[in-house]
Design brief:
It is a single chain. This protein is of the alpha/beta class. It folds into 2 domains: 5-178, Rossmann fold; 189-399, CoaB-like (Rossmann fold). It has 14 helices and 22 strands. Strand 20 (366-370) and strand 21 (373-376) form a beta hairpin. Helix 1 packs across helix 9 (167-178). The structure holds flavin mononucleotide. Flavin mononucleotide binds at residues 11-15, 38, 40-41, 89-92, 121-122, 126.
Amino acid sequence: MDKKSVLLIIGGGIAAFKSLELIRLLKTRGLGVTAIMTKAAEQFVTPLSVASLSGNKVYTDLFSLTDEIEMGHIELSRSADLIVVAPATADLIAKMANGLADDLASTTLLATDKKVLIAPAMNVRMWQHAATQRNIAQARRDGVAMVGPNDGEMACGEFGPGRMAEPAEIVAAIEAQFSVPTRSLQGRKVLITAGPTHEPIDPVRYIGNNSSGKQGYAIAEAAVALGAETILISGPVNLPLPPGAQVMPVETAETMLKYTEDELPCDIAIFAAAVADWRVAATSDEKIKKTGSGTPKLDLVENPDILKTIATRKSKRPKIVVGFAAETENVIENAKKKLAAKGCDLIVANDVSPASGVMGGDTNIVHLVSAKGVETWPRMSKREVAQRLMDRLAAMLAQS
Ligand SMILES: Cc1cc2nc3c(=O)[nH]c(=O)nc-3n(C[C@H](O)[C@H](O)[C@H](O)COP(=O)(O)O)c2cc1C
C-alpha cells in the first residue's frame, strides 16, 4: 500500500466528522491523503482539522487563483490513485450520476479518469427516495464502487439504511481497490443459496421468515471476485443482484432443492438460505376466507432438508459443502450437532437472536465449526465475513 494516494472528497453531511478518523487510519497505513471539501462540508468539520490530519493542503474552491496555479483542478483529479467520496451526500451522488460540475468536488469527479469509491451517508428517507436510488443505480452503471450505507440509528433519530460505513470498513474497501485481485477460484463452480423461502398457504399468503439474504449475496459477490462461476439460488429478497453471478430466483424449499440438484456438479456449495422447515400440506387454490366458524386448520409437512440431501449424496457431491446455522441459543453446541447430523464439511454458525442485530443487519459474528474444532471470528461486516470465508474455502479446495 506504500506510495498509493487517495483523493478524499468530503461532502456536507453529519457523517463528515468520521472522515477525520478515516484520514487517520489511511495515514497509519502509509497512504497519502489529499482532501477536497465542499462548501457544505466546511459547516461540519474545519479545513484546518482535515489539513492537520492529512498533512496536506485542503482544496475547497474551484475558482482559486493560487490553487489553480499550484495544482490545476484537472491535475488534482488525476494525481491520486483512487478518489474516495466520504460522506457521499445525496447531492454529490446526484451530481455524479448526472454529470454536473458546478463546484470543485463535482468538477473533479467529472474530470477524473481514476476509480471512484463512494460511502453514501444520509437520512433514511433521502436514501430510499426514488431519485437517490435512480442516481445510485446510474453511478454503479458508470463503474463507481460503493461501501455501505449501513443500517442503524441516524443522527436525526430515525432508524434504517443510510448510515455511513464505519471508517474501518471504508479502509477495507479502499485496500480491496488497491489489492491485486487473486483469482483463486478461476475455473471453479460455486453454488450459493440465500434469503428466505416463501411456502404458500393460499394464492396471497405464505409462511416466511426474516432472512434478508445479505450474507448469502455478499458470499456470491466474494465468489465472483475470486473468479468463480457463481450460481446464486435466491429466495425472495430486496437486494441488488450481485454483478457477475447467475441468479436463479425461487420461492419454495422444494424448488430451491430442485435448482440446486440441477446445478450439480459444483466445487463448493454454500447453503446460506433460511429454508422454511415446514410447508402447508394442502395449499388452497382460492384465498382462504373468514367463515365465522373458527380458524382454518393448517396441516404442515416437513420440507426437504437441502443441506443434508446434498451433503450425503453418493454421486455428484460438491467437494466442499458448507451449511449455515442460524441459532438463537447454544449457538456452538447446536452447530456441532448440525455438523454431525447433516454430513457437511463446515458449519458457519451465527446468533440470530433479536439482541444480536444479525438478522437483516450489516454485521455478523460467526463461528466456523468443522471436524477440526471451532474458530470464532470477531464482529465484522457481512461483506468481510464473505471475503474471509471464500478465501478460506478456496484454500481448502486447493488442498483437497
Ligand atoms: C444538519 C444537517 C445535516 C445534513 N446531513 C446530511 C447527510 O447526512 N447527508 C446528505 O446527503 N445531506 C445532508 N444534509 C444536506 C446537505 O448538507 C445539502 O444537501 C448540501 O447541499 C450538500 O452539499 P454537498 O453535496 O456539496 O456537500 C444535511 C444538512 C444539514 C443542515
